[in-house]
Design goal:
Elements (H helix, E strand, L loop, with lengths): L2 H12 L5 H8 L3 H13 L19 E9 L5 H9 L4 E6 L6 E7 L2 H14 L3 E8 L14
Antiparallel strand pairs: 1-3, 1-4, 2-3
Length: 149
């Protein structure tokens, strides 16, 4: 991946629906050259896909939280992934360092819906000792797409 590919990705992260010609104008290439590069980036797995980013509030999902999951004993990441995948309110999940075994990002309609989702997390996940939940009050920064350093 060269600097032009990185520029293309930057443009797409700003506007994933930008036409090839618009991307080309921004990076100094023709539309057909941009298409070839984008096809290669998709083929190489650099661009994993294209999707609509939906504002949860417009869908009626007004409550979100970050949840630390603490398990007794050991549980594999594959087991955690399978369990968390069965709870549709879980938008993201990661294993983490520290005392928690995993960190979840949950989006729910309201606090009662969040409570039901937390119960499902506890039921679906083997060996859950306890969870710690922090409800989001306001989003300060929300950057869609991959984070880079």
């Amino acid at each position: 991946m060269d600097p032009v590919d990185r520029q293309i990705i930057d443009v797409l992260m700003e506007d994933g629906r930008a036409p090839y010609a618009t991307v080309g104008d921004r990076v100094g290439l023709s539309a057909s050259a941009v298409k070839r590069r984008m096809d290669r980036l998709v083929g190489d797995g650099v661009i994993a896909g294209f999707t609509a980013v939906v504002d949860p509030h417009h869908m009626g999902w007004t409550t979100e939280a970050y949840v630390e999951v603490h398990c007794q004993g050991t549980i594999s990441p594959d087991e955690l992934r399978a369990a968390f995948s069965r709870v549709p309110e879980v938008r993201a999940a990661a294993t983490v360092s520290g005392q928690a075994d995993a960190l979840l990002h949950i989006v729910a309609r309201d606090v009662r819906d969040l409570e039901r989702a937390l119960e499902r997390v506890r039921i679906e996940t083997a060996n859950v000792d306890h969870t710690e939940t922090a409800i989001v009050l306001s989003r300060l920064i929300d950057r869609p797409g991959a984070t880079a350093v």
